[in-house]
Each structure stands twice: as structure tokens, then as C-alpha cells.
Amino acid sequence: MVSTDAASIAAAPPYVRVKQHLKDGLAAGRWAPGALMPSEAELVARFAVSRMTVNRALRELQAEGLVERTQGVGTFAAPLHRVSSTLTIRDLHEEIESRGHRHTAVVHEQRAEKAAAPLAAQLGVAAGSRVFRTLIVHFENGVPLQCEDRYVNPACAPDYLDQDFTHTTPTHYLFEATALWRAQYSIEATRPTAHEAQLLGIAAAEPCLVVTRRTFTRDAVITLARLVHPGARYSLEGSFEP
Q: Which range marks the domain in which residue 71 is found?
């Protein structure tokens, strides 16, 4: 009899199967910290998938801090101290669907604007530069779960504003369109702004979990996002196995 976990992995998208194979190997100690892991070509041949599929699996493992990638050299198992201090970047659509629930989104803003000096400094661009902004509310089974206020460096994702974010999430698109190298987080429990409270349908005094996140290529900032979750509707979870 096939286990539930094995059956779910077998039915998962191809990139998930590749990713889980590598995660299982890391957990089993198949590759010691710093060891060279299978190449993209080896994984393409082993799983009979496209290079894009393998690349997505590796990018997500890199975003989770489980591997390090060096262009032209290969993929390496991350040092344990790097693994222990990471927080997974998850696509909210996939997170909601993994619970068997329905994800929908309402886009309130999707435009270009000039970056004031503080924002420009965060994005690593000149003050007054043109940057992209989206303001999106994500729903789980019709209930507002996250208000996502995101700025994007056009140099990293020039087609960002052309996307339909009612059918894909910014996180999913940026995983596909950019060469994610690292991320920075801050997490706090605080009150929403008046506008955020209105968008989320909560009282202005209701505590929220606010995640502020920047992601980077090797040499540029990709995006700066403020993710606001009503505290009563969302919990942040993770795990670590040395």
C-alpha cells in the first residue's frame, strides 16, 4: 500500500518531486554541508523533466536556505548554521491550496511610480527612479488573509506590471522570472494601518502579524514587500532538523 505522503508527492507537480527528492537527500545526510549536489542536467535526465522545472526546484531550495548555487559551478548543500536560521518563502496560493482551501485575490493597485528617497534606498535605486507597485488582498475561502503591499525593481522584473495577479501571485511570478539569491525578513506583531484594516475587514486595533521581506539577486534588490496578516486568522510555522 502506498503511503499518503508518497501518494501526494507522486501526484504533485514535477518541480515538487525534484525538490522533495533533494530535501530528502539532505535530511538523510546524502550530501554533507558544502558538498556538490547533482547537476541540473543530471536531474533533468533522472526525472525526465525540463530544465526550467529543475531550476525552479533548485531556486526554491535556495530561497529556503537549504542549498547554495554558484553560476557555472553547481549547487552545494548549505552549511547547517545557514539552514537553522532560515524562514521559508512560500507561495500563498500553494499554501492555501495545500490546506484544501480556495485562494482568490483582489488587486487594488498595479502601477509604476517614482520612488521617494527612503524607498529608493531600500530597493537600491536612485531617488525618483521608476519602480513598480502592487497592492493585493489575498483571500482564503472568501476571508481576507493577507494584505500584500509590494514594490519591485523594474531592472529585475521588467514585465511585472503585465501579469494578471488574480491568476498568479507575485511570489510565484518572481520565482519564475528572477534569479533569487537571498532574502531578508523582519517579523513583528503590530496594528495595521487604517487602510490595511479597511482592506482586511478588521478593526484598526486588531493585532496583526506583519512580515517585511526583501529579496535579492546576486547584485540587486528584486522586491520589497509588506505582508500583513490578521493575527486571529494566520500563524507562521516552520521546522528545523539538523
A: 4-84
